[in-house]
Write a structure and sequence with these properties.
Order of helices and strands: HHHHHEEEHEEEEEEEEEH
Distance between the termini: 35 Å
Protein name: Steroidogenic acute regulatory protein, mitochondrial
Pfam families: START
CATH architecture: 2-Layer Sandwich
Helix content: 40-55%
CATH topology: Alpha-D-Glucose-1,6-Bisphosphate, Chain A, domain 4
Catalytic activity: cholesterol(in) = cholesterol(out)
CATH superfamily: START domain
Number of domains: 1
Radius of gyration: 23 Å
Largest sheet: 10 strands, mixed
Low-confidence stretches: 4-21, 42-60
Structural class: alpha+beta
Mean pLDDT: 81
Pathway: Steroid metabolism; cholesterol metabolism
Strand content: 25-35%
Keywords: Lipid transport, Lipid-binding, Mitochondrion, Steroidogenesis, Transit peptide, Transport
CATH class: Alpha Beta
Length: 285
Amino acid sequence: MLQATFKLCAGSSYRHVRNMKGLRHQAVLAIGQELNRRALGGPTPSAWINQVRRRSSLLGSRLEDTLYSDQELAYINQGEEAMQKALGILSSQEGWKKENQQANGDKVLSKVVPDVGKVFRLEVVVDQPMERLYEELVERMEAMGEWNPNVKEIKVLQKIGKDTVITHELAAESAGNLVGPRDFVSVRCAKRRGSTCVLAGMATQFGQMPEQKGVIRAEHGPTCMVLHPLAGSPSKTKLTWLLSIDLKGWLPKTIINKVLSQTQVDFANHLRKHLESSPAPEARC
C-alpha cells in the first residue's frame, strides 16, 4: 500500500502534483497518514519506512515552497530575517543605557547598534497570562487602535501562510504635535518557540499601499516583542519590546529619543488598562 501510495503521489503523478495545489496537499497527507499507520503497527519503523519518511519530508518542503509566489517567499524570508536580527540585538547584554524608569518597574533602555542606529528596549511584567497578550497583539492586531491612542489604525494588507502578514499602520500625532502624522508598511512574523512567543517585523515595500499625501512614510526595523511566562508566576508575562524606527523628516535627536521612549512606556500602560477593563475572549474549541 505504501509503495503504491508513494509512487502515485511522488512519482507517476509528479506533473499533476506540481501543477495542482489540492493534489499536492493530498499527496503529502496520504504519505504522512500511511507512514504513521505503519509506524504505530510495529515496535519500530523499518529502514525503508524511515527512508521514505525522509523523502516525503523533503517533498513536502518543496511542495510548500511552490504554494507561494516569489514575492510571497521574499516577504516570508524578510520577516524571518527581521526576527533573527532583532533577537540578535536583544541577546547582547552590553552597552544598554537607561532611558526611562517607572515606579512600577517598567524600564526603557537604549543602545546604538552598528548599521541599525539607536534602538530602544522596553522591559515590563504584565499581570496577565501569555496567551491573553498573544491574542491581543497578534490575533486581534487590527483592533489596537481601539485601546492605544498612539495608533490610529492597523490594517492587515496580506496574510502569507500562518506566520507572516503585511500591515499598514497609521500612527497618531504625538502630544504637542512634536511629531506629525507617520505611517508604516511592514512585514510581520509571529513564531512560537516552546513557551516563548516572538513577534518581529521590519519595513517593506507593498505596491498596493503607496505613500499617502500629508503623511510621512516612516520605517520600522528590525523590531520585535518577546513574550514568555514569568519565572515562578506563569499567570504573569514578561514582555520585552525592541523598537527600531526611522521617523524620517527633519527632527532633532533629542525629540526622537524622548518620543520613542515615552511611546513604549505609554504602550505598556495602555495595554494593562485595556486587559484589565475588557474580559478575556472565550476559549476556542
